[in-house]
Design brief:
The complex is a heterodimer. Helix content of chain A is 38%, strand content 26%. By secondary structure, chain A is α/β, with parallel strands linked by helices. The longest helix of chain A has 18 residues. Chain B is an alpha/beta fold. In chain B, strands 1, 2, 3, 4 and 5 form a 5-stranded mixed β-sheet that branches. The chains are: A alpha/beta, B alpha/beta.
């Protein structure tokens, strides 16, 4: 699935005030990749995600989408670039006062100007894609954790994004549900050619779906490995192997 | 990605836009030819116009997508609807002519059958009488829950007095700081303005009988006995009652209260008791403070506007005020504090498990708090009058 660099991160550093989270991150994500950002708890995976999606300005460095500087761009250009991103937050982040259909319809109504009937058709199709056909009028509080994640995925896919960013897809899910969600993400990549960035510390998920990866180290506050996670498991940095084998190596 | 309004027709304008046509290669076979860009930012053909050409008799539908330039959810939703119509009319569909991605996504969407769930808006169609009945039942069912919570608080206080209540003193101090000193600015502003209003109100009426000096009596007794406590109670209901409900409601959402229960720690002891105590201790003090601020406002108005001397006002205030007025004000402050804490904690503990429920709990806490304060104020005023206090 190698292609031209779709997302490029150059010398990126992130900090909370004086507390440095990660520094000098350099990596590129190719179109159609499933790129895994891995690392232990507190290493800054989610902070990196927030820098990639425009929620937290990095302390230094650049993020480029198809060559366009994300943080250097004007606010409205950044908003345009953000619409190319679909984001599945860790807990689904569904709006609790809206039904599932309204959750998925909101970005469509906001950014496409499609007639309501067409929006409703798209919403039903997206919910059917994630196996939630018929749940249009349910509120998030009426759903299980796995269903919330799938509904969050339907909302993330509402605008047919080029890039899907998924934060901890497996957290809080049983292994079978986690596997089904992984399969769903892979199927979307295969069918639509969507580039997928997954933030994860779930080993099964990392090894099953990752085509490329970086490993963020909490001790040195920078990335210490890149490449296919399955190769990292056999030939990678000892620290990464230690992580990927649950400390048995 | 803004889209033009949909047109009703098979051949929308634009060379690169989406186009469709029908082709009959053999008897009983209908081929749908899709060409151009089938994306949401194009004007897509209306499906009902296309569906008119699908035969009503059994046949087979195939696809030719050789000239299809690009596609997204626009094509997928169009085809998903078309396939449903074909299924309803008994037309077999051969999807092999569709791009692989489209085939896979259509298969995914059809993999899990649609859930049959009861309509969600059934309540909206019920009659007015049914809705009044339902609302009354909700209220009636809420009363035992309120009494049960009151009972739990009484038991918690009994455990407190017997030294068996489990809560942290640091929580109590923190709550006391939150509800007391931090409320001083808003209590100061409101009490000063209320004192000022009382002074003007009195001046207007007392002027008729040339007894403006009695502004001091009106403001002093009014603020210390009634208005100081009432205004403080209402301020605290909005400020602290809502905060209690939101805090406990969020804890309910995060299962923190369940965690207390599973550890065998009564959440009422750990969470409600310090809040009740904090308000019952601090609201009387705030009431006292509000009374003095109100009297100061009366003094400022009387001296600067109505030409009453400072000394006269001071003496008249001292003459008017009796210790019992302070006791009445303090007792009311204590009761109002308890009412606000009760309403805030009750609504917080009853909160549902969503962000919206937390908002509802906070709103409900303020409404319940003010309602309870008003009822308590009326009852206490009548009782104190009958007892000649």
């Amino acid at each position: 699935m190698a292609g031209r660099a779709h997302i490029e991160v150059g010398n990126l550093s992130m900090a909370y005030g004086k507390f440095l989270v990660q520094r000098d991150l350099n990596f590129a994500v190719s179109k159609g990749d499933v790129f895994v950002i891995m690392g232990g708890n507190g290493c800054g995976k989610t902070t990196l995600m927030r820098a990639l999606i425009g929620l937290q300005r990095p302390a230094a460095g650049t993020v480029r989408y198809d060559g366009e500087d994300f943080w250097g761009a004007a606010e409205e250009d950044r908003a345009r670039m953000k619409r190319r991103l679909g984001i599945l937050f860790q807990g689904g982040a569904l709006w609790s006062s809206l039904t599932l259909a309204e959750n998925v319809a909101l970005p469509l109504a906001e950014y496409t100007g499609l007639p309501p009937a067409r929006v409703a058709e798209i919403v039903s199709f997206k919910l059917a894609l994630v196996g939630l056909a018929g749940f249009e009028d349910f509120y998030p509080s009426e759903l299980s954790g796995g269903m919330k994640k799938r509904a969050g995925l339907a909302r993330a896919m509402a605008l047919d994004p080029d890039i899907l960013i998924v934060d901890e897809p497996s957290s809080g899910l049983d292994p079978l549900t986690a596997r089904r969600l992984d399969d769903l993400i892979l199927e979307l990549r295969e069918s639509l050619g969507t580039t997928i960035i997954v933030i994860s510390h779930d080993l099964a998920s990392i090894l099953a779906i990752g085509s490329d990866s970086i490993y963020l180290d909490a001790d040195t506050h920078t990335m210490i490995a890149t490449g296919n996670p399955r190769e990292a498991l056999t030939h990678g940095d000892p620290k990464v192997r230690h992580f990927l084998t649950r400390g048995s190596e | 990605m803004r889209t033009r309004p949909e047109e009703d027709g098979l051949h929308p304008a634009g060379e690169s836009g989406p186009r469709l046509s029908w082709h009959r290669p053999s008897e009983g076979v209908l081929t749908l030819v899709l060409a151009g860009r089938w994306c949401l930012d194009e004007t897509l053909p209306a499906r009902n116009a296309a569906e008119r050409d699908i035969p009503a008799v059994p046949g087979r539908l195939t696809f030719d997508t050789a000239a299809l330039a690009d596609w997204d959810s626009g094509l997928l939703t169009f085809l998903a609807g078309l396939l449903k119509t074909c299924a309803a009319r008994g037309v077999a569909v051969d999807p092999s002519g569709l791009p692989e991605g489209v085939r896979r996504l259509l298969a995914m969407a059809a993999a899990v059958p649609e859930q049959k769930v009861p309509p969600r808006n059934a309540a909206a169609r019920t009659s007015l009488v049914s809705r009044i009945g339902a609302a009354t039942l909700v209220l009636a069912r809420g009363a035992p829950a309120m009494l049960r919570f009151l009972g739990e608080i009484v038991l918690s206080f009994l455990r407190l007095f017997s030294g068996r209540a489990r809560f942290r003193m640091s929580d109590l101090w923190l709550e006391m700081e939150q509800v007391g000193p931090r409320a001083l600015p808003i209590v100061s502003v409101i009490s000063f303005l209320v004192g000022l209003i009382l002074a003007y109100l009195g001046a207007d009426q007392l002027k008729l009988v040339g007894a403006q000096i009695f502004i001091a009596d009106l403001v002093a007794i009014g603020m210390v006995r009634e208005v100081g406590a009432l205004m403080t109670g209402i301020i605290i209901a909005g400020r602290t009652g809502a905060a209690f409900a939101a805090q406990l409601g969020t804890m309910q959402v995060n299962e923190e209260i369940d965690a207390f229960r599973t550890l065998g720690i009564p959440p009422v002891d750990f969470l409600v008791l310090p809040r009740m105590l904090a308000l019952m201790l601090m609201v009387p003090l705030l009431t006292l403070y509000a009374g003095f601020v109100g009297m100061f406002a009366g003094l400022v108005v009387s001296v600067t506007i109505f030409d009453i001397s400072l000394f006269e006002y001071y003496n008249e205030t001292l003459r008017a005020l009796e210790l019992k007025h302070f006791w009445v004000g303090l007792s009311k402050g204590t009761v109002y504090g308890a009412m606000v804490a009760f309403a805030g904690c009750l609504r917080g503990m009853q909160c549902g498990r969503s962000a919206e429920a937390v908002g509802e709990a906070a709103t409900s806490a303020v409404v319940t708090g003010i309602l309870l304060i008003t009822v308590a104020a009326s009852v206490m005023t009548i009782v104190y009058y009958q007892l000649d206090i």
